[in-house]
Amino acid sequence: MNSSGSTAVALEDFIQAVQSQLDTAQTRMTLKAQNDRLPLTFAIRDISMDLKAHVELSHGEVRIRPAGPADANPTVLHLVFTAITRPMIDENAVQLAVDSQDDVPLSDLGDALDDDERRRLEGIGVRTVSKLEEMKKRGFGSSLGRITRLPVDKLESVLSRATRPMVSDIEGEALRDGADDLRQRLRVKGKNLLRDGTPPTVSIGGRPVSVIQASDREILLAPDHDQMAGQMSLSHDRHSATDVWFDQQAAASRAAARQAAPRTEP
User: Which of 98, 135, 234, 261 is the most buried (most CB within 10 A)?
Assistant: First the structure.
């Protein structure tokens, strides 16, 4: 750590940075041994370091600032990094699901998180939206906010924005429910259309619309006849909603005409 014009950093950030670089070094050593087919190689087991620094306490957070050569009476922090095995990690860690290839990375959320906030989450293994959602479902929202120094409201807002309904297509159709009854329907396709098995609240033109079928990729709506065009709003909660403009009035009319046309026997 360079003491010239340095600023204090959180103690856990310093330790995490060292750990990250040790992980990188170990990975490179492993790849070298595998690619060169070495019969004998080396591994990092224990690293000790004495860090001379000034210790500060700010808002309940311990921060360290490296001491310069001329600084008097610096604090000496004796840090020891040692290797642990996978069973030791599993025994003491919260079990979380493995990321899948369909997960949305936090880096894809745009300005919902700045670079520093994203690094804090990635530093504890939360790199995707699904992992953040899993942490919240398991009741670790407050702990996550405390560890990352991010407000819980901010995390909830980010999660709500990331998992809000996404619409890719809206199609109008007419279905015959009974002998003579024609019902207009809207088939909405996209993703995140279910949250915990529950479809979003849907309105068109400010009036609610019933959801009669739902999956995560598609929902079927039962709008009134004057709700086949306009602004559709879909939301799972109060934090974030998706608004889409559409016009299926003409398509629905054509579909209804086809359904109502008498069938002729060949």
Answer: 234
